[in-house]
Structure formats: C-alpha cells, structure tokens
Amino acid sequence: SLLGRHLLRPRAAQAYAGALDAVVTDLLRRLQCQRDRHPQHLVPDVATEFYKFGLEGISSVLFGSRLGCLEPEVPRDTETFIRSINTMFVTTLLTM
Q: Which family is this protein grouped under (predicted)?
C-alpha cells in the first residue's frame, strides 16, 4: 500500500518515533497502574489493553492525534469508537 511503502523507509518511520514513544510510555504506565491495583499484581485483561494500545498508536500515526484509549479514564466517545471498531472486526470475520 502507499502508506506501507512510506513507512518502510527508515527516515519516514523516524518521524513517528516521538509520537509512538509517548503511546508506549502511556501503555506501560497504564499496565503498571492495573498491576498495582490487582491483589496478585496481574493485569486482568491484557488483550484489551494491547488492543487499545494498537488503536492509540495507529491514530497517532494516521491522524496525528490521540484518542485517549490509554487514559486512566477513557472518554465515553473513545469507548464507543473502540466498541464500533471491534464490532466491525467481528462482523468482517463472520462474513468471510
């Protein structure tokens, strides 16, 4: 794809390093907070956290802005967006 060819160039990908570093930092902070709250120091639903991380990273690269998926309190509109994307993926899998 056009975007894929662009991102495969090291200099082009380097332009997104700062934005993605911030997303990774927020993910680690969020995971640590969840571990601190859990009696056995576990992340209860790590798959959902990685899903949110993926959406946050993609939005920061494609749109140049963050959705808030990794905030301590995820905005209501962002939660709706996350559910909508998940529904789209599930529907796509069911129709294949």
A: Belongs to the cytochrome P450 family.
Question: Which tens digit of pLDDT belongs to each residue from 16-43?
Answer: 899 999 999 999 999 999 999 999 999 9
- Residues 6+ positions from 70 with CB-CB distance below 8 Å: 23, 26, 27, 29, 30, 52, 53, 56
Strand ranges (DSSP E) for 1-96? none
Q: Is the dihedral of CA 27, 28, 32, 38 positive or negative?
A: positive
DSSP 40: T
The number of angstroms, rounded, from the C-alpha of 46 to the middle of its chain's C-alpha atoms is: 12
By the 10 Å C-beta count (0-12 exposed, 13-18 middle, 19+ buried), 7 is classed as middle
CB 25 within 8 A of CB 69: no
Residues in the chain: 96
Kindly report the pTM of this predicted structure: 0.83
Which sequence spans correspond to the domains of the chain?
Answer: 2-94
